[in-house]
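Hey team,

Filing this mostly as a record. A colleague (T.K.) asked me to run one chain through the structure pipeline before their review meeting, and I want the input and output archived in the tracker in case anyone asks later how it was produced. No errors, nothing strange. Just documentation.

Input sequence:
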Amino acid sequence: MAELPVLVNVSLIGNKHINRGTPCEDASCTLSRNGVSVVCVADGAGGSKYTHARFGAKCAVDCIANLLCDHFDAFYFENRESVSRSLLVTAVHSNMADLLVEHQLDGLERLSCTLLFVAVKGDLVLAGHIGDGLICRVLSHGVSPLTLPSNGENASSTYFVTFPNAQEYLRFIRTTTDETHAFVLMTDGVEEMVYDADSQLVRPVVARLAELAAKGKEKAEEELAATIKEFVIGAGQNTDDCSVGILYLPQTPVPDFSSMKDSKAKFQRNHEDTIRSVQMEMVPKVKHAQEILSAIASGKPVENITKAAPAEDEPAEPVKENIGKKEETNVSSSDIVEKKEKEDNSKDIEGENTETSGEKTPKMVPLWAFLLMSGAYICTVVALLLKLI
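Output structure:
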């Protein structure tokens, strides 16, 4: 019988919070039950409006660890990923509701945090990630990211599990442990030191940190904490809180550290190739398909429907996303007034065009609405055909 994974986790306060006299806002936990091993980490949002983020982070990791230990199979074998993502977020929100009463808070935003988790049962793996931070997979031949940091317009903004539509930003992965030596999870305080976003390179030190788990949980946590304090937190006076979680698989091949790359060519990204540009390109085809389906549903001939014209090459307005600020910076009163005016004059509705320079842009039919409408039309047509037969 294979040995159970070794689970390791540490959460340490960074110099930024030490200097301010504020508590650590990170949280992490490990749990083994029912043949399931889970490791979770979370990073509470910084800033005056996220007053109880550290409590939210602790609640989130404990909730997910218990949920996956008790219901791993349900989530792993559910084919409707949207259902799984919604249930995970709902579970966290439901548990956080008690904190609203306990601390007399006015909303979930006060508890905002990111969330990363990995659960293993046998050779099956469930992983999830919302916000920044990093989940790495250590293999016998190296180390690579399993999920990447998700930031907004800049490094200080990200997505939180407390968002009303958090399930839309939750990356949910079902895989296996094949060729895996360990999983390493980290909040952005560590991620920024070991991950190069320009080249998508995870530095070999992550694999060396994972190997500490071979010494057992207690010894590994002691040495891991000492390493992070010296090389990460000690790297500057403004370093962030740090959390690391390790799920180590014994009796698996140890990677060859000498063969790991410590540098990689920068990835050349096309910044004009965005989901927004894809949506605009598809608009004529979607409208054309709607016409066809409407005609079929109403029994009208479709022969005379003209072919869809290609989309015009015109710049698309950016879609405003629901992004949270992890840290607040010092701003003047004029900045605050300007920000307030912008907030009062804008709509934060995902999937719709925002107003720019006082001019309103036309609303697009969301793709999900079109697909739902299409399904209804097809069901109607099938029903009519069956009735005729």
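Quick notes for T.K.: Confidence is low (pLDDT under 50) at residues 329-365. The chain is about 35% helix and 20% strand.
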